Amino acid sequence: MRKQEIRRLAVIGAGPVGIEAALYARLCGLPVMVYEQGEVGEYVQRWGHVRMFTPWSWNVSPWGLQVLQAEYPQRTWPGEGELLTGHEYRQEYLLPLAECSLLRDSLQLGMRVVQVGQSRNGQSWRLLLEDRQGQEHLAEADVILDCSGVYGQPRWLGEGDLPARGERAARPHIPHGVVDILGKDRADYASRSVLVVGGGYSAASNVVALATLAEEERETWTFWVTHLPRGQPLPRLPADPLKERDRLAARANMLATRGDGHVEYYPQTVLDEVSYLGSQAGFHIAGRSQGKSVSWCVDRVIACVGYRPAPLVASGLSVSEGTYYILGAKAQPRTFLLADAWSRIQEVIGRLAAVPATRFAKASTGMKAA
């Protein structure tokens, strides 16, 4: 599809990738509308208390910082190596981008994309939208960029990503991801028994925070459950460029293998039952650990078993790569870093707008047009 044939480009999701893709499209002269069911950076805001492993320079695009420097010439930006929390990243970068002159009129917040379908002639897309009041709307686009991500679709705790017995009813009482254990949620975990499920960095962050809490609140106890083989739960990467990630892995591995911090580690464990018994009784957990039956009665459960890509709003249709693109974590949910998205955005938008993908490059003194 040649640039002159494209009249309407729809972006689903106003997270980091959606905002960056929309901005790059506008810089390349393409008309864009962004549909977001929540707010800008909705899920970044939800895990906003977490400090990112990746530095500022990894999480901003060349074109994004160039636009901000032009619109806010007197503003001071974080240093290239600075590690921001999610809240800081949203406040310092995503919100200013969304409010810049190129994008502010292209955002439709509080607008959920319910379904998309192809027009009768197959040359364009029709979008069924629903606003915050439940009112439905129709829109059209020639190209769709699906940047809806994965964070709205947590995986189940049972074996094979199936719900354990009782888990469907218990799910509203189980937080997913990194909980603010040492901040606003402290009272919910102090002097409690907590089951943490998962073997990645989110689980490790929770375990380390609970162990820190246990230094002051001695009745706090953590049961760390993973399906991983015996040994250290997190790999240590040789010369890991992300130093905070390596520090977290070292601390979590020590807690797991030494039993410090009131932490008990259970590898090779599968959960068969996760039943919620009420606010006072907590949860009953049953499963198998290294081939033996195990069970716990705990006050809290935290799930850190990852997310699955949200179903395609175009499911059931013959989706053409030339008019429907999936960008961001939804395209590679297990290994995604924000920096991975920049080249893909340039590739896709460059193809649509007929501009070279190297139009923007990082200069040593900042982000400038090449």
TrEMBL record:
InterPro entries: FAD/NAD-bd_sf. It holds the Pfam family Pyr_redox_3. Gene3D superfamilies: FAD/NAD(P)-binding domain. This is NAD(P)-binding domain-containing protein.
